[in-house]
Amino acid sequence: MSLIGAFAFATISPTARAVDPPPDGGYPNGNTAEGDNALFNLTTGADNTAMGVDALDSNTTGSDNALVSWSWRTTGRLTTPRYAHTATLLQDGKVLVAGGQNGNILVLASAELYDPASRTWTATGSLNTARILPTMTLLQNGMVLVAGGIDSNGISVSAELYDPASGTWTVTGSLNTARFRHTATLLQNGMVLVAGGQIDHFVSSASAELYDPASGTWRATGSLNTAHAYHTATLLQNGMVLVAGGWDITGYASASAELYEPASRTWITTGSLNTAREQHTATLLQNGIVLVAAGNDSNFVVLASAELYDPASRTWTTTGSLNTACFEPTMTLLHNGTVLVAGGFNKHGSALARAELGHGQR
Questions:
Q1: pTM score of the predicted model
Q2: CA distance 229 to 244
């Protein structure tokens, strides 16, 4: 049986809330988790079916490795409404959310933790620098790296580390290039690859750099073949990194995709997406397939469509669509295979409190 299967989705739609654009002047970006955002639990049967992702991800670890679809249910509300924030799964199974903006366009330094056991949120230590649109990466030592974004001084080079044991943040080495709308990916060697993003409000970048947690410093690495911002970057099981879609140098959604090879520190092109998209989301499934969903296309139409990337053939195939078209949703895969999904925006630019649960079907 093919590793690539179909998805079907069910939805729950709490009331959406309108928000203004972020200070970079673009249309609303990022994601809101201010409503009853969804979390769904793993179900495991005799065939070890694992379930996951924001109405977009799922996967099976059974004998035939088929993909499955998902359904969703609501969970506890954040203590602070926010969008354009970041979310990361910690080693203890909790989820760290930090930064972003609230509905009054206040840039936030606050952070909070989601506990899957109680399905509640509690405040934790605040960032040293309030910021929107940074990246957040869990390091192999359990610390969390936040880098770049936009702060009160504009596009940021600053970076800081969160210590889950103390619940506090400390400053670390600064990026070589100030950027936002970039990606950050933990490599198998423990280093963090930062790629693309915007270095000006209308200029997408092809540059990339590596963070070394041992020294707390950054160094340049090979540049992308194509400038990307608002793209996704996904670590594959073979150690390569898949970058897909995003804004190109012209400021329009791109279908291009490429792979980073850590040993040579170079990029090679791979199969293009079926639909050009930016401000979408991507998740690695347990069988090694990558699921991409949502976003905006090159005509700025908000998408519900989804597709799957097969690293073996380096090709994409379409799969079941979301019930609600959106851009910039977040999703966090939990230790038990469930995924915490937080918000997004609809075609009207309204921040969504809706969530979808996708339930796997053979």
A1: 0.77
A2: 10
Contact of 195 with 243, CB cutoff 8 Å: yes
User: How far is residue 130's CA from residue 190's CA, in Å, rounded to a whole number?
Assistant: 26
CA–CA separation, 297 and 300 (whole Å): 5
Task: Name the 3-class secondary structure at 201.
Answer: coil
Which residues on neighbouring strands pair with residue 339, listed in sequence order? 333
Half-sphere exposure of 21 (CA within 13 A, CB side): 5
Token pair listed for 339:
């995924």
Structure tokens at 22: 């972020």
Amino acid residing at 188: Q
Neighbouring-strand partners of residue 163: 168
Q: Which two tokens stand for residue 296?
A: 């905006």
Length of the chain: 362
Q: In the CATH hierarchy, which fold is given to the domain comprising 10-358?
A: Neuraminidase (2.120.10)
Lowest mean pLDDT among 56-65, 94-103, 191-200, 204-213: 56-65
Q: What residue ranges do the domains of the chain occupy?
A: 10-358
Using CA atoms, how far apart are residues 248 and 242, in angstroms rounded to an integer?
16
